Amino acid sequence: MPILEINLRKIRHNAKLLKNLLAQRNVSIIGITKLVLGDPTIAMTLVQGGIEYLGDSRINNIIKMKKNNIRAQFVLIRIPSITEIPLVVKYANYSLNSELKTIRMLSNEAVKQKKIHNIILMVDMGDLREGINIFNIECFVEEILRLKNINLSGIGTNFKCFGGIIPTDENMNEFSKLVFGIKDKFELELEFVSGGNSANFNWFKSCKNIGEINNFRIGEAMFLGKETINYEPIPNLYTDAFKLITEIVELKQRSVIPKGIIVSNAFGESVQTYHNKNNNGKKSDIIRTQALLNIGRQDIAVKGLNPKESINILGASSDYLVVDIRDNQFQIGQKLHFDLNYEALLRAMTSPYIHKKFIDI
């Protein structure tokens, strides 16, 4: 079975450094656990690193963390489904919202459960994912403030998730002015003015005046140590807290050219073939040493793998990763190692066929 090795010390280090860095400008972090499936061991590591708020897009992950005695305030960062509302009120301290119908139902459920539910109202600043139109915000706030057992705890926005829009001085300043106007008009003290995610890191570092912003929702930067505009490493953060370990299950000498009539592969994709031309201009074959590794597209996003050994990834089927081992003298059973990007790590954490191994060194 492939292994995903998870270094808790490195994750704890990243969480602590980011928390301290943002705290210098009075900005808090909601640590986002959706990438790691709300894993309680990793969640505890974030808490040990000083993260007080944990956010997840799945209410079941929040329930799992709470039942494993993770001491944090929990934020549901996906707009609640109507069918989830009883669970959201029971288990989440906060939820992100953009639909009045949903917020009204949260109010009714909170009254029923005799609880106060906190919401962060999401505003669309151009990325075209979740959020209300900025021209409707006053009407929304007026309605929310009239609801029983609902506390408007914050206003948030999002960047670089759907439309690829990045945070800039212009759109962040527009968002900040919008929030200031709402706070002034309604005499509000907002716990969260949540300006985005890991894609905001470069803006945060370069901007002299961050305005009303006092919170970011951070996941990828803590786990992978990179900002998410250019995917450059963040200074002093670990980028290798997660490592995929696979095993060679077959080694064979093979032609680079498939034999027979070529159509699409098992996933309906066109197959790219390689031909080498000799001195006479005629196509000739090349023989390579090909290895099959015990992981496939059912488990991993192949394009998100970066091999640590000197090999070439040729592709993958459902069950195998196919690689050219080049000049390496590998053996059956030998382990090969990979770094992962966000998508590959998301798939690896979700797969039940990859063993998760925690280390703290």
Task: Give a topology summary.
Blueprint: E1 3-7, H1 8-23, E2 28-32, H2 40-48, E3 53-56, H3 59-67, E4 73-76, H4 85-91, E5 94-97, H5 100-113, E6 117-122, H6 137-146, E7 150-156, H7 169-186, E8 192-194, H8 201-206, E9 215-218, H9 220-224, E10 242-255, E11 276-277, E12 283-284, E13 287-293, E14 305-307, E15 312-316, E16 321-324, E17 335-340, H10 342-350, E18 355-359
Helix pairs in contact: 1-2, 4-5
Considering the protein shown, what is the CATH homologous superfamily of the largest domain?
Alanine racemase
Strand count, sense and barrel status of the largest sheet are: 8 strands, mixed
CATH topology of the largest domain: TIM Barrel
Averaging pLDDT over every residue, what do you get?
Answer: 93
Task: Assess the beta-strand content as a share of residues.
Answer: 15-25%
What is the CA-CA span between the terminal residues? 23 Å
What does this entry look like structurally?
This protein is 29% helix and 25% strand. With 361 residues, it is α/β, with parallel strands linked by helices. The chain folds into two domains: 218 residues, TIM Barrel (Alpha-Beta Barrel); 118 residues, Elongation Factor Tu (Ef-tu), domain 3 (Beta Barrel), CATH 2.40.30. The strands form three sheets. Strands 1, 10, 13, 14, 15, 16, 17 and 18 form an eight-stranded mixed β-sheet that branches. Strand 15 and strand 16 form a beta hairpin. Helix 1 packs across helix 2 and helix 4 packs across helix 5. The chain is elongated, with a radius of gyration of 24 Å. The mean pLDDT is 93.
